[in-house]
Amino acid sequence: MALRLGQIIDSLGGSLHGDPETLIQKLSPLDTAQADALSFLSNPQYQSQLANSLAACVIVSPAMEAVARERGACIVAANPYHYFAKLTQLWRQHLAQGDEPLVHPSAVIHPSAIVHPTARIGPLCVIERGAQVGAQTWLKSRVTLGENCRIGERGIVHAGVVIGADGFGFALFEGRWEKIEQLGAVRIGNDVEIGANTCIDRGALDDTIIEDGVKLDNLVQIGHNVHVGANTAMAGCAGVAGSARIGANCTVGGGAVVLGHLQLADGVHISAASVVMRSIRQPGQYSGVFPIDDNASWEKNAATLRQLHRLRDRIKSLESAFESQKK
Prior knowledge:
Layout: E1 3-4, H1 5-12, E2 15-17, E3 23-24, E4 26-27, E5 37-40, H2 47-52, E6 57-60, H3 65-71, E7 74-76, H4 80-94, E8 108-109, E9 114-115, E10 120-121, E11 126-127, E12 132-133, E13 138-139, E14 144-145, E15 150-151, E16 156-157, E17 162-165, E18 170-173, E19 176-179, E20 186-188, E21 193-194, E22 199-201, E23 208-210, E24 215-216, E25 221-222, E26 227-228, E27 233-234, E28 239-240, E29 245-246, E30 251-252, E31 257-258, E32 263-264, E33 268-270, E34 275-276, E35 284-286, H5 295-305, H6 308-326
Parallel strand pairs: 4-5, 5-6, 6-7, 8-11, 9-12, 10-13, 11-14, 12-15, 13-16, 14-17, 15-20, 16-21, 17-22, 20-23, 21-24, 22-25, 23-26, 24-27, 25-28, 26-29, 27-30, 28-31, 29-32, 30-33, 31-34, 33-35
Antiparallel strand pairs: 1-3, 2-7, 18-19
């Protein structure tokens, strides 16, 4: 497959300095691009790679236009990284889909489920009773969409995802666990992407909700009755316990955990491997990594850690008093 530079400009805009008839055969990083490739420069610290790049054309910001034009052909865009992202989408649209059916013959779809005619259902998927799949959504291989769960338009659900398994709900009675039936469902908005082997549990009574534009990486666990706000992104192995509420435009780093029933405001960013143990009411970056210990010691150390700034001030005051006495 190949696209002309002129086709790319017609589809995505930008300002082209070069021959619009130039054929692009692939998309490549600056340092490995060959003469048939299109690349991009979004971070100025990689400017040194630009002059030596063999790429047929490079996407750059207005600030880098002069340097790029000295090297050769370039596309000038306000945000090169965003432009490149849109270019990858355009590239995939032009890749041949072949004659494969939209619904793979091995998929199992309950007669009461609703699958939009433009949705793509991959091999060995299971869509259970009352489930709904929106327009242009793609369920890749071995995805399970549980009963009465639904996903909106333009979603991408990668292999092995389970949407609508029972939440982890049990009542301890006379030394044994009594199952609490999970009677809610999962509601997923538009433009959501869910990574491989991620699990989103159905609600106990009300639904688990994933709003528009959310991006979940591989192996993310979303507990029952969690609410994830629009355009929030979570990296691999993050976990959110039941009934937590995550705001819009948040990020949760890889391996981070949000405990149950907590609330994160819009615009909260959790660093990788952190454990969120209290609600966060203000936007900002939050981190918390603490060495493992027996619980009693850990609680004492954590309490002390919160007072470190006060201890520091007291030490400075004592040092100052000591120095005064020496004089």
